[in-house]
Write a structure and sequence with these properties.
Layout lengths: L2 H27 L1 H5 L6 H6 L7 E3 L2 E8 L8 E4 L7 H4 L1 E3 L3 E3 H5 L1 H5 L6 H10 L7 E4 L3 H12 L7 E6 L6 E7 L5 H4 L5 H10 L23 H10 L7 E3 L3 E2 L8 E2 L9 E3 H7 L2 H12 L1 H10 L23 H7 L10 H12 L3 E3 L4 E5 L5 E4 L4 E4 L3 H16 L15 E8 L13 E9 L5 E9 L6 H17 L1
Parallel strand pairs: 1-6
Antiparallel strand pairs: 1-2, 2-3, 4-5, 6-14, 7-8, 7-19, 9-12, 10-11, 13-16, 14-15, 17-18, 18-19
Helix pairs in contact: 8-18, 11-13, 11-14, 11-17, 12-17, 13-15
Protein name: Cell elongation-specific peptidoglycan D,D-transpeptidase
Organism: Stackebrandtia endophytica
GO cellular component, one term: plasma membrane
Length: 491
């Protein structure tokens, strides 16, 4: 081969090599970029050309697809028959605003693009029969979900709050509600302007942020429910429910600017047993216990053991709870009664009670029962994962004895959670929120977390109820709601 022909050959080979490399770069390395590019609507048109699979719970449809009216391009749209109580779980599918919630997490299954549904797509090509996407089945009990929603909404107009109910043995979530909520149906609408109007009303400055899931996406001061973690730390340090700890109606920690008191004159004695201090919810006892006996490291270790600092996945995300800065005795004293920087999710508080009911073993929270192919064959079961042994069996047994005293004892603060004929334990909480610009105390948050055993003596339910800015009586209202939800599961 002469020199000019050799040079031309080399150039041609190099050009073909570059073309081959670029083709593979576009097809594989840049696939996600082009597929999700806003200017590429072929994927969107294809996604809306077939019905998506359904999101189901307890035999009820939470989300499915219906033919779009008067649209030849986008043939289907989503509908959410039970809308608001389930909206933070299902999420939404919108042509303008994309997907949220489980619609986003399981888009591959619901749209039919998941690799496990390849045979269904291949069959469609040969038979011409349109196949829908797969289905997502939840562990949610729809009746329990609606009952939790109605209970919080029924307290007063605009009541903000959340509730989580789980099975302690499996971590399966039986109910998870957040108020306020939103109707996802207008977001899925293909009527011009309807989706935008709904989005604006949900995200506007005065909207109240209804799309925020307050059960998992926000953290709040837990008030006296934090005393469960402190009591666990005390037991781990060698104390028993009968160990005497300092009490009294006032306590000022070193370096503190404020004096810690109790809600009423319920702890005047100089000493109380650890169990009686939890039963009466004595702030002074737990603040002194942390500062004078336990120290910051013991409290921090126990909080971390219960999952503080971790982000759970259900598969929806759960914000991490935190115990804050414990470096100063004044901070530590406040943290041990659930104030200062301590912040927890409603889910976290439910998991604490679930672990104690389950003998000290915490199961990871799980929302998925199973994933189905379009023909309803099971592709995947929801995982049943152990988070860890957060306390020993003996410590869990001591904590149950103390938490059951909170509910059953005449001096306990959780009597409203009793379920006749069943063993129930729990802890109330009232979280202060400081003052407004005029120096007036803001209404406190109300809490309850607890568990119930069924007639066979098995831990059947754990619950956490949070009522934002509920004011005086808020913790009792939360306790009443929690008792009603546990009764629905147990009876």
């Amino acid at each position: 081969m002469n020199a000019p022909l050799r040079r031309v050959t080399i150039v041609v080979v190099v050009l073909f090599a570059l073309l081959f490399i670029n083709l593979n770069w576009v097809q594989f390395a840049q696939n996600d970029f082009y597929e999700n590019n806003a200017y590429n609507n072929r994927v969107t048109i294809a996604e809306y050309s077939r019905p998506r699979g359904s999101i189901l719970a307890g035999g009820k449809t939470l989300a499915d697809s219906v033919p779009a009216e008067g649209d030849d391009v986008y043939k289907y749209q989503r509908q959410y028959p039970l809308n608001e109580p389930f909206a933070h779980l299902t999420g939404y599918q919108s042509l303008i605003y994309g997907d949220g919630g489980l619609e986003s997490v399981y888009n591959g299954i619901l749209s039919g693009s998941d690799p496990r549904l390849f045979v269904d797509r291949l069959s469609e090509m040969f038979t011409g029969t349109q196949v829908s996407g797969g289905n997502v089945l939840l562990t949610i009990d729809p009746d329990l979900q609606v009952a939790a929603w109605d209970a919080i909404r029924g307290l007063k107009d605009g009541q903000v709050g959340a509730a989580v109910v789980v099975d302690p043995r499996t971590g399966q979530i039986l109910a998870q509600v957040s108020t306020p909520s939103f109707d996802p149906n207008p977001l899925a609408s293909q009527v011009p302007g309807e989706s935008q109007a709904a989005w604006d009303s949900y995200t506007g400055e005065d909207s109240g942020n209804p799309m925020l899931d307050r059960s998992t996406g926000e953290v709040y001061p837990p008030g006296s429910t934090m005393k469960i973690v402190v009591a666990a730390a005390a037991l781990a340090a060698g104390m028993t429910p009968d160990t005497k700890i300092p009490s009294g109606n006032e306590y000022k920690a070193p370096n503190a600017g404020t004096t810690i008191t109790n809600a009423a004159d319920q702890c005047p004695e100089q000493e109380l047993t650890l169990q009686e201090a939890l039963t009466r919810s004595c702030n002074t006892s737990f603040a002194r216990l942390c500062v004078e006996e336990l120290g910051a490291d013991a409290v921090a270790r126990m909080a971390e053991s219960f999952g503080f600092g971790d982000r759970f996945t259900t598969p929806l995300g759960v914000a991490a709870s935190s115990y804050g800065d414990l470096s100063d005795p004044a901070y530590l004293a406040q943290a041990c009664i659930g104030q200062h920087d301590v912040r927890t999710t409603v889910m976290q508080n439910a998991l604490v009670s679930a672990a104690i009911a389950n003998g000290g073993t915490m199961m990871s929270p799980q929302l998925i029962e199973k994933i189905q192919a379009p023909d309803q064959t099971t592709l995947e079961l929801g995982p049943e994962d152990k988070y860890g042994d957060v306390v020993s069996g003996s410590i869990a047994a001591d904590l149950r004895k103390m938490m059951e005293s909170v509910v059953e004892s005449g001096t306990g603060t959780g009597g409203s959670a009793r379920v006749d004929g069943y063993t129930v334990g729990g802890k109330t909480g009232t979280a202060q929120r400081g003052t407004d610009d005029q120096g007036v105390d803001l209404p406190e948050h109300g809490w309850f977390t607890g568990y119930g055993f069924d007639s066979n003596g098995e831990p059947a339910v754990a619950v956490s109820v949070f009522l934002s800015s509920a004011g005086n009586g808020g913790s009792n209202a939360a306790t009443q709601i929690a008792g009603d939800l546990m009764r629905m599961v147990l009876q």
